[in-house]
């Protein structure tokens, strides 16, 4: 069954809970990507650099799926005042998490064959 058809049959609170768990999963993926990018920069551990881009692709896919599901859920529930605001807040959070994932993809690019480590000394170890 298609995911959107499944959404129609699930109660709102169940679907919202499921989506919240997926947002946490997205945050975990972004955190993992950020730690990997940091290891490449501060390490310098350049052999890890090729692993960053596939992680960003997974983040992008999950972001698109979550955005579609949240918008669908939002279109179903506009009657209560608080729910649309809460759903929009989650949409903004997943957009921001996806953007952080994009930054992780950009950071590990070495400049002139070496990593820039001095700006990242304040970053704590993952």
UniProtKB/TrEMBL annotation:
PANTHER family: PHOSPHATE-SPECIFIC TRANSPORT SYSTEM ACCESSORY PROTEIN PHOU. Residues 23-105 form the PhoU domain. It comes from the Bacteria. InterPro entries: PhoU (IPR028366), PhoU-like_sf (IPR038078), PhoU_dom (IPR026022). It holds the Pfam family PhoU. Signal peptide: none annotated. One of its GO terms (biological process) is intracellular phosphate ion homeostasis. This is Phosphate transport system regulatory protein PhoU. Gene3D superfamilies: Phosphate transport system protein phou homolog 2, domain 2. It comes from Candidatus Synechococcus spongiarum.
